[in-house]
Here is the input.
Amino acid sequence: MIHDFLVIGGGISGASVAYELADDGTVLVLEAETSLGYHSTGRSAALFTPNFGGPVVRRINIASAPFFAAPPDGFCDAPLLTRRGSLTVADAGSVDKLPPLLAMSEPGAVVVEIAPKEALALAPYLRAERIAGALYEATVADIDVAGLHQGYLKAIVRRGGTIVTGEAAIEVQRRDGAWEVTTKRQTYRARILVNAAGAWADQIATLAGATSIGLVPMRRTAIIVDAPDGLDMAASPAVDFVATGAYIKPDAGKLMASPGDATPTAPQDVQPEELDIAQLAHWIETETHIPVRRIAHSWAGLRSFVADQAPVVGFDPHVPDFFWLAAQGGYGIMMAPVLARAAAALLLSRPTGDIGVDVDAISPRRPGVSAG
Ligand SMILES: Cc1cc2nc3c(=O)[nH]c(=O)nc-3n(C[C@H](O)[C@H](O)[C@H](O)COP(=O)(O)OP(=O)(O)OC[C@H]3O[C@@H](n4cnc5c(N)ncnc54)[C@H](O)[C@@H]3O)c2cc1C
Here is the structure.
């Protein structure tokens, strides 16, 4: 059988585009791991932060909001977003970083300046002497990432698509005008190949004879610690520390923290470094009144970027029927609904005008992306 579309990667990117395609053609999703969402998709901070990333990313985030707020009927059992709110705090040495953030605030996701004492009232575990300025953004929300991912995956199957797990593409060849993707078990055939392989997207391109887009996977570390005694974490906002890029967010009655690190790393099942974990625990105790008695959980994940930090979505300029859906960086969960719609429209030769993204700004042909 020749499928219309073979999607490599069953993370949020592969699942969302396969969902958008499955009503219009035969779709096969091929995932190397036995469990879907094992890599970046299962390792995120699960935040919808519309004012995060560059201008292209921000517009996509905003355009994705209606999907999260009102997903299609039957897509999921629970709301995809839960209101969280977000504080950005600056110490005396970094307070000049706040006005540009305020100025970049997107319409519909407004950021406001608040007094340090208001910031302390929202997050009483912060150290008063470390807050010289603060911003607040009400539109930030927790994303039910598993609910979103499962919603896409279940609908793919309902729409007649096929999901294969535990099989990595190891050979990708073009023969007689179609793609042949070989795993250790078998060979699959498709008219169009969609490269949604996350940190491995450049490796898939190499297998297919396409040029690299200069993708750089960056390791980011996270830990979960106990919340301070007596604090209602459910009502507490996420907190960004603008001085270092570190952040803290409530997570199921505990606190998740990340130093906001971005260490270039080869694609792999990335693990946190002991030193990064120890430094993060020390940082929490220095910057907040939270005692780190134990680290309940720690992990690392990859955020993969090209040079301009915008996603890469579109047909490869040189290799026929090879489609990129890559470089989602630190925003791939919240951008997924709109990127998937844009990708499907391009794959199905449909208009893209009302999707909410300038497809030239995310094209692999744009200047600065090596494949162009
Ligand atoms: C610590 C951290 C915090 C983050 N926080 C946020 C956040 O708050 N909000 C947000 O929107 N985003 C966030 N992100 C970013 C987000 O997680 C990613 O952008 C998104 O998950 C990327 O999804 P993906 O499907 O492209 O990649 P992945 O989830 O990595 O999926 C790619 C899949 O391709 C598969 N694959 C690779 N090679 C092959 C092959 N040869 N054959 C078959 N399958 C293959 C892999 O096994 C993998 O499952 C965060 C990321 C990290 C690491």
About this structure: The helical segments are 12-21, 55-69, 98-103, 116-122, 145-158, 201-208, 274-287, 332-347. The chain has two domains: 2-47+145-215+308-362, 86-138+216-305. The CA atoms of residues 78 and 147 lie 8 Å apart. Residues 86-138+216-305 form a domain with the D-Amino Acid Oxidase; Chain A, domain 2 fold (CATH 3.30.9.10).
